[in-house]
Records
---
Amino acid sequence: MRLAIEHATTYRFSGPIRQGQQRLRLTPVSSAGQSVIAWDIACEGAQIEVGYDDEYTNRVTLVGLTPGTPAVTIRAHGVVETRDESGVTGRHAGYLPLWHFSRDTALTARGTKVAALVGGLENGAARDPLATLHTLTERVRAAVVYAQGHTDVATTAEAALTAGRGVCQDQAHVFIAGARALGIPARYVSGYMLIDGREQQDAGHGWAEGFVDGLGWIGFDVANAICPDDRYVRVACGRDYRDAAPVKSMTYVLPAPTGSAPVGDTLVTTLVVQRLTPA
Amino acid sequence: MTETAYDEMLAPDGTVRPAYDGYRQWLDAQPPGLLKRKGIEAEAFFRRTGITFNVYGAADAEERLIPFDPVPRIITASQWRKLSRGIEQRVRALNAFLHDLYHRQEIVRAGRLPARLLQGNLAYLPQMAGFTPPGGVYTHIVGIDLVRTGEDDFMVLEDNARTPSGVSYMLENRETMMAMFPELFTRVRVREVSDYPRRLARSLAACAPAAFTGDKPTVAVLTPGIYNSAYFEHAFLADQMGAELVEGSDLKVQGGRVAMRTTQGWQPVDVIYRRVDDDYLDPLSFNADSVLGVAGIMDVYRAGGITIANAPGTGISDDKAIYSFMPEIVEFYTGEKPILPNVPTWRCSEADALAYVLDNLADLVVKEVHGSGGYGMLIGPTSSKKEIAAFSAKLRADPANYIAQPTLSLSTVPIFTRAGLAPRHVDLRPFVLVSPQGIDITPGGLTRVALKKGSLVVNSSQGGGTKDSWVLDD
Amino acid sequence: MLGRSANGTFWLFRYLERAENTARLIEAGFRMALTRDSGAASEEWRSVLITLGLHHAYAARHGEDVTGAQVFNFVLRDRDNPASVLAMIETARTNARAVRTGITREVWEAVNESWMKLREILARPVAETRLRDVLDAVRRQAIQVRGAMEGTMLRNENYYFANIGTFAERADNTARILDVKYYVLLPSLAAVGTSLDNVQWENVLRSVAGERAYRWLNAGQMDPRGIASFLILDERFPRSLAFCYAQLLSNLSLLAREYGFETEAHAIQRAGHERLAGLTIEAIFEQGLHQFIGDFLACNHQLAQQIQRDYRFVE
């Protein structure tokens, strides 16, 4: 399937920027289920400083914000040819050992709620990890019901379980924490997804991958209760959302002119994912 | 302990060992009271120069002065040759080891190093995985702490691959000696150390990143600032190298490079000799609250725009649990037996070793695996029963956090005391420079000496002093 | 050279200069107060505080009670006064440490020794009997640093920024004294020949260490016009505005030559310098002495600001 993606993110700051950088993980690379046909990042209010591959083999772009700018817009767009690999991303690439993906992070730290969630799955995890991960998907889906507005980017897996509600990022974190609790390496994936009948979306998508010997990394999208197929485009991965976040910012803002009402930073995202039909 | 220790100047029968022949002849020909007079002079001299280096605040000005002893510590040319070979072998292995840790970890796959030593180890930086620093150099500057127990028995006590300090004392001690006893240096041929800053500058320049174009790389020393306890050394080295001494606030990412704010605009820096810890280096990658580093420097680094010396993540090799595997590490990467042995070490993570250590705490030195500077350790022979019991509880609670070593009978070298020359225990930290052009060891290093009779603790924070360290010319 | 180092060097020398000038001002105030009744003496000390811009801080600390020992202790060493001479020397030393690689060992040691010595002699309250010794020490330390600087520093950007700091501060200082004491020099109020005026005039000269030079040049004749002319326009006197601006011009030009470019600061400085060079003392009195000094202070401040911007002292 050929997908056209246009993803624009606009940050409006509380005052003119004195100095700032944004680390972007907004470039998909060709892999088992996808071939990148064309991709580009364009900025307003910022300039591209460097590009490189990080420790997860994600393509990273560092941009410097233009001093004095009140806002920055990052536009990532391109075309990706996808194939349905039933969620299998394949062998472990890069130089980070697998154990790295078995260790807790702040967002995926395991507590009593995660332990309860995976209760009884321990034997199955050793015998048939693939089936166990599917069971885990169902349990997470039931324990953290998809609902917007109850969590934010800093919500931990335990907190999402306590809330019982959350978005795809929370469900992925809970899945990752659960898999690790069962001794299965797991990681977070950020990317895009074609939604039938809905070209305009509010935000990018996030899901999880677990590592199964013999198969390699396999994706699990808890929110949609499936393994990613040719509607999915992988952009970046890491131990949790923070490693794979599309944009990580460090900004220093000049004080707003006196007399003006204080405002916080605001963020507006527009995302269009379309299927291109062969001409 | 002192009675049985190897004295580097005097053999047990009272004869002077060959290394000190020239020095003793000179000393014996001096009028009585010279050392005493020079001792007083030295203190005034060192205090005056020391003042320029060590006074940080009003109150602690005095304490900051590290005592200097005017009797040199002398190593013969042939002893040094052997030491150099051993140090070079070890440093070569350290760099190969670091490269491997941040790539395929063959040593772990080969079963020669347990993965658990890396797992959860905060000094292992995932951000370095899959990246090779410019020139393949991880440890541009290394300090190897050596102890001696006999004529030919030198052992490595610690590797300092993170940010070894103290080289300014090595240089100042020599300056002080030459100013006090100029004629001594015409009698005894001692190898030069004063060109260390030039060698350091050359070595760093040889590690310029891919993005460097031109004929002379720009080197800068990154300091946390004037309130850092080693600020003097940072300023001293920058001054001696003719490099800029920069703080995080002087730097930013611009034009794909790390640039410094000069009076004529932003100028790219090619090599940063940083004296800021990994955690503070880049708020985008590590501690987000840090104002001592540069946001985005890790991005520029991975993109080939700057050299960071030492490379982030080298601190993993300073870990004492990893240290205990250094003989295996040296052999794995060089294919040779280690020339310099380790101090025998029990890993408390291993049940047999732990049982032995718990039974013999009163005779052992126990250290935290991530610790440094003599903190968090137990010195069995000088500890009370109560201290040992308390430590034993800590050890049982988290055995993997500790290693233990025998209480070594460190060699002694005389120091000048009111009662004349008296032996005191010493160690030695040679400084090693690594670049693609090779490994360069400055002859000598920093000798630290325990000033208290019988004491084995040489750390300056705990009553240690320093000596000029001589390597004799052939 | 780093912008931060240029900033550190600039302020190192500004503070040293300011500390020295403050000592002179106290010395002149002290001498004046000795010859007056207590009410007039208070007035004299108050004008010292105003010249230093410390009158509000002093009032906050001590209220309306203005007495000599209280004033000079406040100015010299009060921990609650961030602009005390001791605080200035401390700030100077902190700057010197931060620019340690840009100054010579001799300059650093001179600054460090100044700090150690002054810290010691200002550790306890200064009695009137000890004041002269203390003030002498302050002046001597400043001279030692300048000697070390002249004798050992390379004539390059570091040296130019040191001089620019020194002379921007000195011009400001002389102008401030004139700003507070201008009425003493106004011809309309000059009651010719009264001893009081002679004392006032001499005091103005003394506060810039110019009394002997002026007498020597003018065969002992004191007149307000001559004094104003001496302090503003005489390029031979190292604390006159004209001298300071000639030095600023020279150091800024050398800096431009080293860097190969001029900045906006050069335009401001040149305009200021030309204004001074083209003026006569008659023209100054005609436009109004107070007005002239006010304009000069504003221009000097603007120049310092522009230098800090042009050479990226801070981001």
Note: Chain A is about 20% helix and 40% strand.
---
Amino acid sequence: MIRSDVVVIGGGFAGLIAALASAKRGKSVTLLTYGEGTLTLNSGVIDVLGFDENHNAVENPLAAIENLPADHPYKKIGTKALEESIDFFTAVARKNHIPYHGSLDRQMMVPTAVGTLKPTCFAPHSLSGSEVFPGKKRIVIVGIKGLKDFYGDIMVENLKKSLGEDKSYEVLEVETGLTGGRDITTQDVARWMDTDEGTSSFSKQLLKAESLQNGNTTDVLFVVPQVLGTKGHACYQTISSRVGTDVVETTCLPPSVNGMRLQALLIDSLRELGVDIVENTKVVGAEKDGTQATAVIAQTASNQKRYYAKKFILATGGFYSGGITMRDFEQPKEMIFDLPVYFVKGEENWSNKELFSNKPQGFAKTGILTDETLRPVDESGKRVLDNVYVVGRNLGGYDFCFEHSGNGVALASAYKAAMM
Amino acid sequence: MSDKTMIDEEERAIYSGDHCLSCTSCMANCPVMAAAKDYRGPKLVAPAHGRMHFSEDDTELSLDFCSNCKSCDRACPSGVAVSTLNMLQRAEYYKKHPHPQRDDMLAHAEKMAKLVNALPLGTTFANLGMKIGRSLGMFDSMGIAGEREMPAYASNTFAQEFRKIKQPSSDKKVVFFPGCSINYNEPHIGVAFVKVMNANGYEVILDEAFNCCGSPLVVTGYLDEAHEHAENNVERILYWKRQGIPVVATCTSCSLMLRKEYEELFGEEAMKEAGENVYDAFEFLEMLDAEGKFNTKLAPVNEKFLYHVPCHLKAAGIGTPVVSIFRHLPGAKVELADAGCCGMSGNYGFKKDKYEISMKIGEKLFSRIKAAHADDVICECPTCRMQIQHGTQAEPCHPIEILAKAYQ
């Protein structure tokens, strides 16, 4: 039989971290994935807690965790594991050439693709907006000809509100030579930037910015879409040094280049440690013996294959990725171990029609509740399985989108589960 | 085939476009999009057009760029059969439009091989003819990439070689599906497979009623012909299934076609049932290993292997059984190339107008191989191996050959 110390199910941020932290402890790990995971779709910055239950901006995430309701995943994870997970992650990222800035006791503000600022805790240097805003007087917004979903004028309007009217704003459009076919994406431009021709042409065009022609070069800040290379931060360093001042990337619509940089980094690290990664296999069930899971059953192209392990880490996500489904109202199901799923009862509490209001969505809190070891519990708080750990968006009791805590919960829970 | 029961609509690949959330994961992972800026990408072509369920008479022309490598299928978190939707739409397109001249040749390798083998000294003359034809630019003028060498015919087919093998008889049997490449071009791989199975106590059956799996037909839009192949092959697979004898292939594109793509393309229940009886060779060995029945009396090989995992093996969702089996090989070290699609994708790289894209996709793998200094490059897929040889001068082999050598 195929046996490992740990089987991790799910290839999103939580799954990759759980597999990596387990492998670093010397465990034999099998990672089962279905689909590309979340990192293609998120910016790869680590939001820990941006807003509280009443949608007030959180200034000190570490302190604010104390006041969260008892069922919130952070309450089970604890701040110690959160801090350790951040150390773990930033060390891995640094070693693999994507150093992250940040701190758990304050927010960093990163610019979005429409020029608003978004709170996060840790971001790679290339995205660390508020680290480089101080002292900047002239802002150059760099658009790319033919790039979808990046509009310089809207950015100027919003950046004026967030950075101040006292600064000068210039929009510069870079020509890449990639136009003429389909609409181009940030990924296309980032691949062009991987070439010497791309970095050289890009920096030459930035050097033509009017804002650079008078005054101190270091007063200028270039705001660019996520296009500074597909791997590591070498391209970001090259461009910054060639233009002689700071350059900052924005978050963007998917596919997210920085998310993919992070994904590549994590997968390379897993390979280095000999983790078996099985792609395109949907886990559809489990074998149990009392309160122990003995194997998971995974679908191949035409058969089923069993993966045995001492320990299982569940990182299959929530409604979006099919880790939890709800075919019948108020009958949510976890698809592999058939774990009890928490949800907000009552149709009237299920959703909030005001999509962008200051109230969370009831349905978003659907998920599995755990004890402090991250093992699943039932409604009465009794543990249901002894060797299954639940991480990331599988967890119930929080609305990651509303409170901006997605990657923070994913990272900290995955790390803690791996350490148990 | 008598039983034409269709799979439930909800489960059928042709309707899977409705599950698309437009998340762009497929675009982010499409090797053709990375190499060709005119391809609008899997999301826009497959699920977006597929949602019309082929009722509208409009075609997205950039569909022609899809190589059916299935990177999109693997990337999709929602179970959309992206590449299959592309292939279905391609077939629709060619119902109303003429094929380029070269398609006929690229799709019908089996037919040609049969003709050539029917003539005395046919393979010798055909190989000579292909060499002359290539140097005179004949392939090029037909729309086939003149830079490439056509795979040479072996002097004996695998079927002929197979008859010479004296196998120890056994109650444990498998049916071998060699596929066109092994049968007509590289029979020694089939011979190696028989040796490995014999060493593990299995007798190998060759069922000459099998056709080409149909993969070259599907990707060039000859879907009706592919359907005929599917019906024949499915009937044979079910015949063996009823006797409890699995069908095993060494080509990962053949096995994916038999086990999954028939079902996706044609939606018949019998195809799904047949798929359950099809295995990849190393998957089968891994299953023996899981039961403690894999023969580990293997001679040391003391080599470092660089392993290019074919896209179609990744799509099969069985992981990398070669890696786990090679762990039993004393002195063998396997490193994954992990450099994405090779760019060849069956007959895609043979198309003159796709040659450049194909080579651009392969660049990452080529430089990985050149930098790796491995003793051997291993890969199950015959067209990946052709591409590797063309792009690097390395001479890759099938991992089953290494294993056969170790059973002394």
Note: Chain A has two domains: 2-99+261-419, 113-250.
---
Amino acid sequence: MTEEFHLPSYREQSPKVSARFKKLYERRIKMEIKGLSKTFQTSKGTTTALNKIDFSIHHREFVSVLGPSGCGKSTLIRILAGLDFPTGGEVLLEGKPVTGPGSDRGMVFQGYTLFPWLTVKKNVMFGLELSGRSGSAVESEARSWINIVGLSGFEDSYPSQLSGGMKQRVAIARSLANNPSILFMDEPFGALDAQTRAQMQSYLLQIWKNVDVTIMFVTHDLDEAIYLSDRILVLKANPGEVNEVIEVPVPRPRSPEQFITPEFLATRQRLEELIHPKGAIEEKELPVVRMVSAEDEVE
Amino acid sequence: MSIEKPWFAIRKPLSPQRQTLLTLCSFLLPIAVWCVVSYVPFIWHPDMVVTISADRSDVTTVYSVGDRLPRDKESENDFVFEDFVEAVRVQNESVLEAREANDPLVTTSRTNKKVLRHLAPVGIAEGWLTRDQATDDAAIYQLWGDIATGERVPTSVPLSEENKEIVAENWAILSGISETYESKKIPKEALRTLVPQGKPSNPVFVPPPHEVVATGWYDWTHQRDPSKPSMPERYVHSLKIVFGGFLLSCLIGIPLGILGGTYDFFAKLIEPFTDFFRYMPAPAFSTVLVAILSVYDAPKIGLVFLGTFFQMVLVLSNTTKMLDRSLLEAAQTLGAKSRHLMFRVIVPGILPKLYNDLRILLGWSWTWLVIAELIGTKSGLTEFIETQGRFRNFDSVYPSIIVIGLTGYITDQILASLRPVFFSWDPEHSGKKPLWIFRGFFWLVDQDCYDRTTPERKPLISQ
């Protein structure tokens, strides 16, 4: 009964999708990564976390960074945000080199990092107030951002009173309120349960659609990367280098139903190959010690 | 249907009701032990406390009322209460023998007045005489008459049969001369002196609770010596020393601690020396402090400061370092500069822990109080404790020590209860119990020591 099931190549793009990419590449380059390297000095010697990474992100693009654990995804995004410094190469944001953290590059961390002593509203107002503004204008702006992430009514709650998903939405609102030209997200949904995560993914797509922002998204979840991104930057570990840049052939607008479309599955299969190459994971057989009687067999 | 939870369950909290009960017990048990030791006569009580004393001729050792003598002879050289009584009886025998031989011993009226005065403690114990009347011969003379005629019968210190006889006999002699006191009419013939009486008691350093309470109340509500500060004045003085030293330490220690926790520069500059200095015991510097700051309050405050400051810098520096680094990074990506990080992230972020640290450090300050008040001119509660302790008035000593302990404990409890009010955002306080003192009121309505068959859930904020 089994039918041989053939997936199309992940490189095949429908005319609509290829037109979209054409339009995307015509947009101005937002961030340019040139020969970026990062090495650490450890007691065992020098470890290369990132080795000569070259990549460009276009305006309004959604890029995911994917790779096996230890490939330096987080290091990369931290360097781009200015929280870490490269040992080689440079990063240009709209033509200007990045030298340190700043409000033009927002960042959402996995660990929420909300200020627990501030209410939701005050958290969102944090960046606005740092820029020297204050008063009712800032407050109403904060309110509208809280509204955009769907948390109206929780303005005066403290972070400890919110669930994980809600906290992360506040963190997104807080970053977006600063009007950053690019938003970095470092495994933002990694700590959430599967259901909340799916919900947050769809929220994020809606927010990205409505807000003029470019997003770079670090994840280790293959489905999440395909579902959200225009392009996926796949890294490999030891040393961290660009493995492949995949143009996601799944058309937009995205919806959870697309998880089983041929383009989606083809992309997924390719990512599997890149991230878990055959033989990379040793499937070790457990020693056979049978403690089950014949009628209780399961296979 | 409900199942009672066990009292002993490993790492499981007891119900609030049981917690309150045990909290009460933790205070009541030591008090109960103290009461048992003090009031159950056959437990311990190795001494006899003198209730009626006597002078022995040709013996210089004088026992007055309240003094203690051992009850049992442990070695040949011990002078026990029974020996004292026996010596007085022998002395009385010789008075009687001389009187029977019609050659009564002659002494001075001054000695006889002293003999009469030994009845005064009985009158004071009964409340018939005030403390000041212990040497009021006229009143004492009156008392002899009243007791001899049976007009007044002492109950607090009941007279032994032999003493009743002595009172009657002496009064017969005295009333034969005069019914009322006249200094010149006190006879010169030797009177029999009252035989010492006593009751079993604990050593002087274990006064019974009621005495401690009574003496404490008296000390704190009356002024014994108008030339010296009253107890409330002493108390305020001690508070000034503790809080003076502590606040001074806060003033310098908090900024330094936060700087040390924020900048590695300050950490490396400050911490190694601080770490070394705190091992030098603060009291060792007392003479130096007196030399620099003279003998009054300044060196005392200085000692509390020395004892608290170095700990404070290290503790606060560590607390500051514990602040989640990612909060700082988040603030940086929101455009925060160093100044903003310090005053908008670090300071508000560490406040709840800082508050707790300061509570603990305030406790440290209290421990330096007594040593601080002993240097230079002694002052405050410590001076009182020292002086009274030297006179072995331990019933005066303990109330003052307890007051110091209670002040520290209650201050800490109040500060701990206020923490959820100040830092309601701190996740540590979700579902925090009400003020310790009020917890007792919830006790009666508490149903939590039973497992409910239908568990109730707190409503969660839903998405």
Note: DSSP finds 16 helices and five strands in chain B.
---
Amino acid sequence: MDAILIQILNGLDKGGAYALIALGLTLVFGTLGVVNFAHGALFMLGAFCAVITQKLLTVSKLVKDESITFFDAYKETPYLELWWGDFGKTIIDWSVPISILLTVPLMLLIGLSMERGLIRYFYKRSHAEQILVTFGLAIVLQEIVRSLFGANPIPTPAPSIIAGSAPIGAFLGLDEALVYPWWRLIYLLFSVFTVSAVFAFLQLTTFGMVVRAGMHDRETVGLLGINVERRFTIVFGIAAVVTGLAGAMYAPILSPDYHMGMDFLVLSFIVVVVGGMGSLRGAVAAGFLLGLLQSFASMNEVKSILPGIDQIIIYLVAVVIILVRPRGLMGRKGVMEE
Amino acid sequence: MSKRSLLKNDWVVMALFTVAVLSMPIWLAPIGAAYPDLLQKFAIFGIFAIGYNILFGLTGYLSFGHAVFLGVGSYTAVWSFKLLTMNVLPAVLFAMVVGGLFAVVIGYLSLRRSGIYFSILTLAFAQMSYNMAYSVLTPITNGETGLQLTKTDPRMIDAMFVAPGEGLPSTNLFGMSMSGYSGFYFCAVLLIIGFFISLRIFRSPFGLKLLAIKSNQNRMLYTGFNTKPYLLTAFVISGVYAGLAGALMAVTDPLAGAERMQWTASGEVVLMTILGGVGTLIGPLLGVGIIKYFENIFSALNTNTLHQTFSFLPDWLEDIVVAISSHFVGDGWHLTLGVLFMVIVIFLPGGVMEGFQRIAALARRLSRPQQEKAIQTSEQE
């Protein structure tokens, strides 16, 4: 029972990340009709926003170390610590949550310039060419990051107050020994919150209404005198922000390295396809579903029956879905069906 | 016979190609590319790209999973070295058969969908194979270490004829060692055969049908033409080519690892094919040549060599130029490749071959007005 609870939490947690990335990807596909292979790179860039924030906050200078008296020792001390003492230390400690402040504008900028600078010239070209050019872009972005930050993963720890584990067993009146990392719980809440925010934005605002109408029938909305293209550009920016936030918050769970984008790219496409191309709700549902499936498949009981199932379960599900029901779990009839 | 009709003759093309490939150690020497390691890579990836081009170039089906067949070919070849004999012929044959079998299974399932779904299906199969090779299939693939030869291998056929020597045996073709130039010539002969088959396919009714599927599959279906068997055949042929390329990798260097199957490795062959010119006969080979050659050159460069290269500039300018360009060389070679690839896809979707054609067309246009002028003046006279 306890093991199952942990696996459910694990699954929801992974699912939260999948759902966020897939939501961004399917927003882009549903509005602009572009298959974006650089989407994983956006996730990676988001994670590196956390790294950049950490580096910015810990800009240091050499200060004489007073604790060592018998020779002159110098140590690197961040400026923030010099100015504000313990408060500065706390700020540095909280660099990952603070990085959200940087991630949002930076990813919005990256998203907008990507769409205006490159993607918009590929609306009329075939899906294959879209895949190729965005694949090239993904390589370029990941190599730029590598030449700036190196090839090794950069640890970006969560704030020390919540670095430990939450005694969820005690919360729920179960076994006291049942614990789960705080940051993962926060990530789950964060992903649920972000997904809700995106949906609320699309459902409750006029802007969102126009976007939804445009996803449904772009031509008619255009004929009504609404500049659909500009709104879709903004949607691309929003998708980049959502994906970037997913990456930035994921940094304490998985230390960012330059090729994490490529690893998540395949997964996010699988999630989108399982949910149905262009279906936002499908992407979110499929994200959580696949996360749960994956974590259950990695339980020892399951692995002893079907060895290796945890490695392939997601892909297996995707293959079956594409072959049996190409429009996915919640896809609209006729979208990308042959 | 005029120049153009000569190039339409398959035998003339083949003769030219054969001479060009076999004399590569001579005419590549001036640019410093004539050493066996690199030449072998040219030939091996050439075979891979030619095969891939038969699928992607003719049918337009973009597969992101071809590295699976490459990896499977390598594993099969190494197992053949381990269990049977160090002779390369059985290894190559087995690898082609196994690569083909994998292609039948993956192709049969993937080809039920087209467009992006096909790409994602091949991607999913590639990731499945890669993950399995790393985890449950470790007894076959030897996991992260990769499959290698050991002294305790049975090598049943070899054991019957020759006494085991000291150290690890090397791959051979009936006693001829497969390292260095002999290895290259073995790969080159297979490349020539592969190119010949691809040439015949391009100019056969079968190839035309594949092209018709690319240009409009629906029309083919409406006329009552079943496209599936043709697509599957093309897929399997390209899988066999990839299996062969994988086997040759093992021939020149007898080990096999799962990283050859990762989907980014499939991406590499896509890059090569597109860069050279997809759907053209010689384009993929050009792409392979360009990528592998510049990979070699660029990876070897570092800041010191850059400082030497740009030493003619004023000091302050030299520092700036070196600072910028150092990101593009050495480990950063992939950045150059990515930029190059994007430029090609954006401006020259037909690759280097399209570039050649455009230059040729430009040259014709430039020379024509002069001819017309000449005709006009002669008429006036």
Note: The radius of gyration of chain B is 24 Å.
